[in-house]
Write a structure and sequence with these properties.
Layout (H helix, E strand, L loop, with lengths): L1 E5 L3 E10 L11 E15 L4 E8 L12 H13 L4 E8 L9 H49 L11 H21 L12 H20 L5 H10 L1 H14 L5 H27 L1
Parallel strand pairs: 4-5
Antiparallel strand pairs: 1-2, 2-3, 3-5
Helix pairs in contact: 1-2, 2-4, 2-7, 3-4, 4-6, 4-7, 6-7
Length: about 280
């Protein structure tokens, strides 16, 4: 089965044809036929439920009622069990002829389920990622700062321009800012080409806002922090954007907050050392 292609509210998956009648008496042996297959594009809809918007390929006249379509029935089962809070619309590109004995019905159902799982994954990942990022900011960054400073910047004076209370307040500001930015972005969601871009821009701001404070709070005073944040704004946003993109990479996304936390610490402590050296 080919991996699905990703988009913000749409995913497409391909499932190959299959044959089990290898020889007389050997129906339990089967194999896939990659040259034939069904492709299903599942689009997220605001209203819970399932619709079949159409089909193309070798079979264009398929049942449009979800309960009478194998792909539709599979998606209905997902809706009933998972209750994701949004719906699915499926468009099926049939590459397997009806009645060919090559598993066309099963292929449509499997492709639909894989594509729908991608949409569920896309909706779930940012929640896990943001939770990990906030926990790291409040409880993990201090230990990481100590580790990096002892190894790479042992002579850097600790002026303690921030603390635990400041870190907690910074996290609240980041959360409030994220909600405000999402509210302000509502009109832009009317333009589908912007769907993948809007959350990345917002998360880039949240990332740099959360991690920059904790990276410098122990070593810089308040004035140094303000100057460095202002002068290095572009680079910090770029790091935040890279972190937002990495969050969608399977497996790597779960470790991204720690990796980029270290990157922010190295970058900002280096910037602080350079500023003091040039003073």
């Amino acid at each position: 089965m080919n991996l699905p292609s990703l988009a913000k509210t749409r995913a497409t998956a391909f499932a190959p044809a299959s044959a089990a009648n290898v020889a007389i008496g050997f129906d339990i042996l089967g194999f896939s036929v990659d040259v034939l297959g069904d492709k299903c594009t599942v689009t997220r809809t605001d209203k819970p439920g399932v619709t079949i918007s159409g089909s193309s390929g070798v079979v264009k006249d398929i049942p449009r009622e979800p309960a009478r379509n194998t792909a539709g029935r599979a998606l209905l089962a997902m809706q009933e069990v998972l209750k994701p809070g949004f719906g699915f619309d499926a468009f099926i590109d049939k590459g397997i002829p009806l009645g060919s004995g090559l598993g066309g019905s099963a292929a449509s159902a499997v492709a639909a389920v894989v594509a729908a799982n991608v949409l569920l994954f896309i909706a779930f990942v940012p929640l896990v990622y943001l939770t990990a990022l906030f926990i790291l900011s409040v409880f993990g960054m201090q230990q990481m700062v100590n580790y990096v400073s002892q190894r790479s910047y042992p002579e850097l004076e600790r002026r303690r321009g921030g603390g635990v209370a400041g870190s907690g307040w910074n996290s609240l500001v980041a959360l409030a800012g994220m909600l405000a930015l999402f509210a302000l972005s509502v009109p832009f969601w009317l333009f589908p080409p912007l769907w993948p871009i809007i959350p990345l821009v917002i998360l880039a701001w949240v990332n740099q806002r959360l991690l920059r404070y904790d990276a410098l709070a122990e070593h810089a005073d308040a004035g140094e922090m303000a100057r460095i944040f202002r002068r290095r704004r572009g680079a910090l946003y770029l790091l935040g954007l890279l972190l937002a993109l990495t969050a969608y990479v399977p497996l790597l996304g779960f470790f991204a907050p720690v990796l980029f936390g270290l990157a922010f610490i190295h970058y900002l402590l280096g910037a602080l050392a350079a500023e003091r050296g040039g003073a």
